[in-house]
Specification:
The chain is α+β, with helices and mostly antiparallel strands. It contains five helices and 14 strands. The two termini are 17 Å apart. It holds the Pfam family Transglut_core.
Amino acid sequence: MLIRAGYEIRFETANPTPMMAMLSIHPSRQKDLKTPQQIETSPVIPIYNYEDSFGNICTRLTVPAGGVTLAADFVIEDSGLVDARAPDAAPAPVEDLPDDILIYLLGSRYCETDRLMGVAWAEFAHLASARDRVDAIVAFVHDHIVFGYEHARPDKTAWNAYQERQGVCRDFAHLAVTLCRCMNIPARYCTGYLGDIGIAPVDAPMDFSAWFDVYIGGDWYTYDARHNRPRIGRILMARGRDATDTALTTAFGPARVISFQVHTDEVDTDDIAS
Protein backbone atom coordinates (compact mmCIF):
# COMPACT_ATOMS: atom_id res chain seq x y z
CA MET A 1 0.00 0.00 0.00
CA LEU A 2 1.04 3.63 -0.57
CA ILE A 3 0.70 6.40 1.99
CA ARG A 4 1.00 10.11 1.36
CA ALA A 5 2.16 11.95 4.45
CA GLY A 6 3.59 15.26 5.52
CA TYR A 7 3.07 18.41 7.54
CA GLU A 8 3.16 22.19 7.58
CA ILE A 9 4.15 23.91 10.81
CA ARG A 10 4.52 27.67 11.30
CA PHE A 11 6.67 29.18 14.06
CA GLU A 12 6.90 32.87 14.96
CA THR A 13 9.79 34.45 16.87
CA ALA A 14 10.86 37.98 17.75
CA ASN A 15 14.57 37.20 17.47
CA PRO A 16 16.71 34.61 15.65
CA THR A 17 16.19 31.35 17.56
CA PRO A 18 18.18 28.13 17.19
CA MET A 19 16.01 25.03 16.80
CA MET A 20 16.40 21.28 16.53
CA ALA A 21 13.70 19.29 14.73
CA MET A 22 12.94 15.57 14.43
CA LEU A 23 10.53 15.80 11.52
CA SER A 24 12.20 13.35 9.13
CA ILE A 25 11.22 9.71 8.90
CA HIS A 26 13.50 7.22 10.62
CA PRO A 27 16.39 5.85 8.50
CA SER A 28 14.85 2.38 8.76
CA ARG A 29 11.97 3.60 6.57
CA GLN A 30 13.94 5.54 3.96
CA LYS A 31 14.16 2.51 1.64
CA ASP A 32 10.35 2.59 1.43
CA LEU A 33 10.14 6.13 0.04
CA LYS A 34 8.53 6.46 -3.38
CA THR A 35 9.03 10.22 -3.59
CA PRO A 36 11.74 12.32 -1.93
CA GLN A 37 11.23 13.42 1.66
CA GLN A 38 12.78 16.80 2.31
CA ILE A 39 12.08 19.57 4.80
CA GLU A 40 11.17 22.78 2.98
CA THR A 41 11.45 26.15 4.72
CA SER A 42 9.70 29.42 3.99
CA PRO A 43 11.57 31.70 3.87
CA VAL A 44 14.47 29.59 2.60
CA ILE A 45 17.07 29.25 5.36
CA PRO A 46 20.12 27.01 5.91
CA ILE A 47 19.41 23.63 7.55
CA TYR A 48 21.45 20.49 8.01
CA ASN A 49 20.92 17.00 9.37
CA TYR A 50 22.84 14.73 11.70
CA GLU A 51 22.13 11.32 13.23
CA ASP A 52 21.79 11.19 17.02
CA SER A 53 22.86 8.41 19.39
CA PHE A 54 19.47 6.65 19.00
CA GLY A 55 19.72 6.55 15.20
CA ASN A 56 17.22 9.36 14.60
CA ILE A 57 17.62 12.08 11.98
CA CYS A 58 17.85 15.51 13.61
CA THR A 59 17.66 18.79 11.71
CA ARG A 60 19.37 21.96 12.93
CA LEU A 61 18.25 25.42 11.87
CA THR A 62 17.92 28.96 13.16
CA VAL A 63 14.44 30.44 12.95
CA PRO A 64 14.83 33.99 11.63
CA ALA A 65 13.23 36.96 13.34
CA GLY A 66 9.59 36.92 12.32
CA GLY A 67 9.37 33.16 11.93
CA VAL A 68 9.53 30.24 9.54
CA THR A 69 7.26 27.58 8.06
CA LEU A 70 8.54 23.99 7.95
CA ALA A 71 6.83 21.64 5.51
CA ALA A 72 7.22 18.27 3.83
CA ASP A 73 5.15 16.00 1.60
CA PHE A 74 6.10 12.49 0.46
CA VAL A 75 4.76 9.10 -0.59
CA ILE A 76 5.96 5.96 1.14
CA GLU A 77 5.25 2.28 0.60
CA ASP A 78 3.96 0.25 3.54
CA SER A 79 3.43 -3.48 3.93
CA GLY A 80 -0.20 -2.97 4.98
CA LEU A 81 0.33 -5.53 7.74
CA VAL A 82 -0.94 -4.94 11.25
CA ASP A 83 1.47 -4.63 14.18
CA ALA A 84 3.01 -8.04 14.91
CA ARG A 85 2.33 -9.48 18.34
CA ALA A 86 5.33 -10.52 20.43
CA PRO A 87 6.02 -14.25 20.90
CA ASP A 88 4.78 -15.99 24.04
CA ALA A 89 8.06 -15.98 25.95
CA ALA A 90 9.13 -15.72 29.55
CA PRO A 91 10.72 -12.40 30.58
CA ALA A 92 14.41 -12.49 29.72
CA PRO A 93 16.72 -12.47 32.76
CA VAL A 94 18.19 -8.99 33.03
CA GLU A 95 21.70 -10.44 33.18
CA ASP A 96 21.16 -11.99 29.72
CA LEU A 97 20.04 -8.79 27.96
CA PRO A 98 22.43 -7.19 25.44
CA ASP A 99 24.35 -4.20 26.77
CA ASP A 100 22.65 -1.73 24.41
CA ILE A 101 19.20 -2.84 25.58
CA LEU A 102 19.74 -2.12 29.30
CA ILE A 103 19.10 1.62 28.86
CA TYR A 104 15.47 0.78 28.05
CA LEU A 105 14.99 -0.65 31.55
CA LEU A 106 16.08 2.54 33.30
CA GLY A 107 13.93 5.38 34.52
CA SER A 108 14.03 8.54 32.40
CA ARG A 109 12.71 12.12 32.36
CA TYR A 110 9.07 11.17 31.71
CA CYS A 111 9.16 7.55 32.88
CA GLU A 112 9.62 7.38 36.65
CA THR A 113 10.10 3.66 37.30
CA ASP A 114 10.77 4.31 41.00
CA ARG A 115 7.30 5.80 41.52
CA LEU A 116 5.42 3.12 39.60
CA MET A 117 7.35 0.00 40.62
CA GLY A 118 4.85 -0.97 43.31
CA VAL A 119 1.88 -0.43 41.01
CA ALA A 120 3.43 -2.57 38.29
CA TRP A 121 4.30 -5.54 40.49
CA ALA A 122 0.92 -5.46 42.23
CA GLU A 123 -0.95 -5.47 38.92
CA PHE A 124 1.13 -7.70 36.63
CA ALA A 125 3.50 -9.94 38.62
CA HIS A 126 1.06 -12.88 38.53
CA LEU A 127 1.50 -13.18 34.74
CA ALA A 128 4.37 -15.47 33.78
CA SER A 129 4.64 -14.58 30.09
CA ALA A 130 6.33 -11.34 29.01
CA ARG A 131 3.80 -11.04 26.20
CA ASP A 132 0.90 -11.49 28.61
CA ARG A 133 2.35 -8.82 30.84
CA VAL A 134 2.62 -6.38 27.93
CA ASP A 135 -0.93 -7.19 26.78
CA ALA A 136 -2.18 -6.57 30.31
CA ILE A 137 -0.21 -3.33 30.63
CA VAL A 138 -1.58 -2.02 27.33
CA ALA A 139 -5.15 -2.85 28.37
CA PHE A 140 -4.62 -1.32 31.81
CA VAL A 141 -3.24 1.96 30.44
CA HIS A 142 -5.90 2.14 27.73
CA ASP A 143 -8.66 1.84 30.34
CA HIS A 144 -6.92 3.99 32.97
CA ILE A 145 -6.38 7.16 30.90
CA VAL A 146 -9.08 9.26 29.23
CA PHE A 147 -7.85 10.71 25.93
CA GLY A 148 -8.30 14.40 25.16
CA TYR A 149 -6.16 17.07 23.50
CA GLU A 150 -7.23 19.48 26.23
CA HIS A 151 -5.31 17.28 28.69
CA ALA A 152 -1.93 17.80 26.97
CA ARG A 153 0.91 19.61 28.67
CA PRO A 154 4.65 19.37 28.04
CA ASP A 155 5.71 18.54 31.59
CA LYS A 156 3.30 15.64 32.20
CA THR A 157 5.10 12.44 33.21
CA ALA A 158 3.99 8.82 33.45
CA TRP A 159 3.36 9.28 37.17
CA ASN A 160 1.25 12.38 36.51
CA ALA A 161 -0.76 10.53 33.86
CA TYR A 162 -1.32 7.62 36.24
CA GLN A 163 -2.57 9.95 38.97
CA GLU A 164 -4.61 12.31 36.78
CA ARG A 165 -6.03 9.55 34.53
CA GLN A 166 -6.15 11.78 31.47
CA GLY A 167 -3.79 12.69 28.66
CA VAL A 168 -2.82 12.38 25.00
CA CYS A 169 -1.07 9.62 23.08
CA ARG A 170 2.37 10.44 24.49
CA ASP A 171 0.99 10.02 28.02
CA PHE A 172 -0.43 6.59 27.16
CA ALA A 173 2.97 5.62 25.74
CA HIS A 174 4.94 7.00 28.70
CA LEU A 175 2.83 5.14 31.25
CA ALA A 176 2.98 1.86 29.32
CA VAL A 177 6.74 2.18 28.80
CA THR A 178 7.26 2.83 32.50
CA LEU A 179 5.16 -0.14 33.63
CA CYS A 180 6.97 -2.44 31.19
CA ARG A 181 10.36 -1.30 32.47
CA CYS A 182 9.20 -1.86 36.03
CA MET A 183 8.50 -5.48 35.05
CA ASN A 184 12.02 -5.81 33.54
CA ILE A 185 10.67 -5.72 29.98
CA PRO A 186 12.78 -3.27 27.91
CA ALA A 187 10.59 -0.60 26.31
CA ARG A 188 11.30 2.38 24.10
CA TYR A 189 9.15 5.38 23.13
CA CYS A 190 8.30 5.97 19.45
CA THR A 191 6.77 8.82 17.50
CA GLY A 192 5.62 9.13 13.91
CA TYR A 193 2.66 9.16 11.56
CA LEU A 194 -0.44 7.02 12.12
CA GLY A 195 -3.34 7.88 9.85
CA ASP A 196 -6.93 6.66 9.97
CA ILE A 197 -6.05 3.75 7.67
CA GLY A 198 -7.93 0.48 8.06
CA ILE A 199 -10.35 2.01 10.57
CA ALA A 200 -13.40 4.24 10.44
CA PRO A 201 -12.44 7.90 9.89
CA VAL A 202 -11.92 9.83 13.12
CA ASP A 203 -13.60 13.25 13.37
CA ALA A 204 -10.54 15.07 14.70
CA PRO A 205 -7.59 16.96 13.22
CA MET A 206 -4.74 14.72 12.09
CA ASP A 207 -1.69 14.78 14.36
CA PHE A 208 1.54 12.92 14.86
CA SER A 209 1.23 9.88 17.11
CA ALA A 210 3.14 8.13 19.89
CA TRP A 211 3.44 4.40 20.59
CA PHE A 212 6.10 2.10 22.04
CA ASP A 213 8.22 -0.96 21.34
CA VAL A 214 9.02 -3.82 23.70
CA TYR A 215 12.01 -6.17 23.54
CA ILE A 216 10.86 -9.77 23.86
CA GLY A 217 12.50 -12.95 22.58
CA GLY A 218 15.46 -11.07 21.13
CA ASP A 219 13.50 -8.61 18.97
CA TRP A 220 11.39 -5.45 19.15
CA TYR A 221 7.58 -5.44 18.81
CA THR A 222 5.22 -2.49 18.48
CA TYR A 223 2.32 -1.80 20.87
CA ASP A 224 -0.11 1.10 21.21
CA ALA A 225 -1.82 1.77 24.54
CA ARG A 226 -3.84 4.69 23.17
CA HIS A 227 -5.69 2.50 20.66
CA ASN A 228 -5.23 -0.95 22.27
CA ARG A 229 -5.43 -2.72 18.92
CA PRO A 230 -2.99 -3.63 16.13
CA ARG A 231 -2.93 -0.94 13.44
CA ILE A 232 -1.55 -0.57 9.93
CA GLY A 233 0.34 2.24 8.27
CA ARG A 234 2.69 3.40 11.01
CA ILE A 235 5.55 5.56 9.72
CA LEU A 236 8.31 5.81 12.32
CA MET A 237 10.07 9.15 12.76
CA ALA A 238 12.05 8.79 15.98
CA ARG A 239 12.52 6.55 19.00
CA GLY A 240 14.33 6.80 22.31
CA ARG A 241 13.91 6.60 26.07
CA ASP A 242 10.91 8.97 26.13
CA ALA A 243 9.65 12.21 24.56
CA THR A 244 12.85 13.99 25.59
CA ASP A 245 14.76 12.01 22.97
CA THR A 246 12.08 12.32 20.26
CA ALA A 247 10.71 15.86 20.56
CA LEU A 248 9.34 17.06 17.21
CA THR A 249 10.98 20.43 17.72
CA THR A 250 13.13 21.95 20.44
CA ALA A 251 13.55 25.73 20.36
CA PHE A 252 16.46 27.26 22.24
CA GLY A 253 14.51 30.44 22.95
CA PRO A 254 10.94 31.75 22.63
CA ALA A 255 9.12 30.37 19.58
CA ARG A 256 5.35 30.16 19.18
CA VAL A 257 3.55 27.55 17.08
CA ILE A 258 1.08 29.53 14.97
CA SER A 259 -0.29 26.74 12.78
CA PHE A 260 0.11 22.96 12.74
CA GLN A 261 -1.18 20.61 10.04
CA VAL A 262 -0.41 16.92 9.47
CA HIS A 263 -1.72 14.64 6.72
CA THR A 264 -1.49 10.84 6.44
CA ASP A 265 -3.66 9.16 3.80
CA GLU A 266 -3.64 5.97 1.78
CA VAL A 267 -3.30 6.75 -1.94
CA ASP A 268 -3.05 4.86 -5.22
CA THR A 269 -0.30 5.04 -7.82
CA ASP A 270 -2.04 7.77 -9.82
CA ASP A 271 -1.89 10.10 -6.80
CA ILE A 272 1.90 10.07 -6.56
CA ALA A 273 2.35 12.65 -9.26
CA SER A 274 -0.53 14.86 -8.14
